[in-house]
Automatic annotation (TrEMBL):
It comes from Oceanimonas pelagia. GO terms for molecular function: ATP binding; helicase activity. Keywords: ATP-binding, Helicase, Hydrolase, Nucleotide-binding. The keyword ATP-binding applies. Pfam families: Helicase_C, SNF2-rel_dom. The lineage of its organism: Bacteria, Pseudomonadati, Pseudomonadota, Gammaproteobacteria, Aeromonadales. The keyword Transport does not apply. Transmembrane segments: none annotated. This is DEAD/DEAH box helicase.
Amino acid sequence: MTSKRKPAASAAIPNQPTWVDVNELKERRETLSLRDYQKTHLARFFAEERKMDLSHPGTGKTCPAAVYMYGLWASEGIKSIWAMPKSLLVKNWEELLLWSNFMPDDVVIFDGNPKQRDKQMATDAKVFLMGFDAFARNWRQLLECHPQIQSLVVDEWHLGFSTHGWMYRGKVHGAKRTLEMYQAMRRIPWFLPMTGTLIDGRLNSAYPAINVIEPRYYGTYDNFMATHALLDDYGKPWLWKNHEHLAQILMKHSVRVTFEDAYGAENKQVFVELCTMSPAQRRAYAEMEETALLELEDGFIEAGTPAVAVMRCRQIMQHPETFGIPMNSGDTKPDHLRVHIQSALDANKALVIFEVTREAQNQIVALAESLGAKVGLLNGTVTGNARAKADSEFRSRFLDVMVCSPEVAGVGFNWSHVDTLIFNSIDYQDSSFIQAYRRALRGKRDTPLKIYVLQYRNSIDQRIAHIANSKSKDRTKVFKDDTQVHIVQSNSMMGGDFMSG
């Protein structure tokens, strides 16, 4: 294929990190080495064009991937695309430079407006790092400009391509992003998806990766569902089956090391703290739960479907003030958070708080700041560069408290200096809970990590926990040595351990 664009090596590249000291970089490289299991994985990567790294979070999947991409270029002249959540772009850019002999001009973050992306594409980069959507929209132009691109590496695969997409009668069904990935892989021979949670709440989240590696296992998505799912009257899976069959396929085409294999048993202590809604909050919650209609001073809130009713109940629990509902019981979640934050400040300890809803995230930030804490925020409103800055300030101890959404902060960050994590709420995915707390379990710890989960008594907090438990059971039927989530329903103020595996 003839390229229509000529790489311009000397052009200024927009949206790239500028703080790298090349001499310091070279010195740090000399101190690094792969662990034995990482070397074994690396050999497998070079031996097979298409394979997966399904190692647990925190075991070091990025390091051998960086060596792998450099090896493809140094030995075969193969360039790579590295797709990932945008929150990881800067972090993985640094990791790639540390664990390879690439120089900064060889590694380009592909992000920004069309003019900026054109300049980035016109460089002679050997690896292009980008978000999932940028890959789906631009892979054709990238391959046209750089026909040497013959490798796709994906970090946190389950966040980008866990939903099947297909074309039928000229229309896209399912995930268009996954459909674009399928089409790209018809032209890209080398393939390395990385994730510690390939089974992301449902068995069919494994199908896209299997379909790329060896489509003849199932032939079609419908065949996969017929093999592994029992469907209800609406065509939705209500029970998964044949876990062993799927496990055998995944084992054949992947490398994997558990956290326990790499570092020993997780050094953690997990507690459930039961909280009490304020009287007004409980009345509003009960009214919404029973009638799906809540009368406020200036109007009504209606929940037209059960899903909306659940969402409204969660809003009443997590940020009732937005509806004008007072919180004055002394035992609410904010009351518990106030104690934890003050204790962390008194002990000069870093603290991470995970919260699902955006309004509650902002309220937690305000609460921590009112106590004198320096606070960082990581959620969907924070841009990639701002995320990198907040992460750096938190690791350097300039920030005391980090308030996060599990979806944004649950991958890629290394907060091993943290001794306490708090989940003010959890989502429905068992995998996101494990990914989140393992931000602070990076390697072997000398002191236990304390994990607190706040729940309101007799609320949908228990229902959400039950759903996470059920998804965890399906995942551990495929990966039997995985960590299993089991959230206890305690009647005491302080529950016991609720993780096993």
